[in-house]
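Weekly modeling sync, notes
Attendees: AB, CL, MP (scribe)

Item 1: holo prediction request
CL wants a bound-state model with S-adenosylmethionine before deciding which constructs to order. AB pointed out that an apo prediction alone won't tell us much about the pocket. Agreed to run with the ligand included and paste results into these notes for async review.

Input as submitted:
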Amino acid sequence: MIYHSALKKFKEWKKEECYEFQSPDISAYVFNAFDGIHEQIKTVDFIYTEPPFLAGYKIFNDRANPTESRKWSELITKIGTTLMELDKPCYIMGGGQLKSSLKGWKNQPVLSSIHEGAGFIFYNKTIPDFKPKTTLSLIKTLYEQYDVGGDITCGYGLLGYMAKKQGKKAILTDYNPYCIGYIKQESSKW
Ligand SMILES: C[S@@+](CC[C@H](N)C(=O)[O-])C[C@H]1O[C@@H](n2cnc3c(N)ncnc32)[C@H](O)[C@@H]1O
């Protein structure tokens, strides 16, 4: 498993629109978060997602959607509205800029800082005393409590990787078809 931002040769993977397999129950679809939420994501028990940081937004657009002209703040506002309407437990990796863009949420989001102002933003938090130090420990703990996780900016599928390790399910979406192609090709090795 490699961290998404380190992947410079992403075009080594084939583009795919959709990938589904029954065992171990990982599905991945191309879907743009500006368009709301994929029907399948509506069925999950919780959301774990890592939207782009402002500094990486242009790079992700250059890879997936070079004509995108909408601003990062518009994407975050849209994600915030979508997740508020979904009304499931949400765990978002981000920083202060992201948190302040989610101000409209009816439950005030809480940032639990882990690294230089970045951390986990909780919404409808369901594990009150848990203060995760890493992404992996957060996802592991969520899968001890829930069966199906959803990620709306899934990149190369860390949530699916953790679901497979714990015998659970993940429904993943990203606007970049290379990410879905990567998940199709690599997830058999997870
Ligand atoms: C920080 S990465 C996510 C890393 C991911 N957790 C992983 O395991 O690789 C942010 C992701 O957001 C995706 N993204 C950016 N803008 C998006 C949009 N409008 N709709 C859906 N996905 C988007 C990028 O393609 C990228 O994969």
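Recorded for review: The chain has one domain: 17-189.
Action items: CL to compare against the apo run; MP to circulate these notes.
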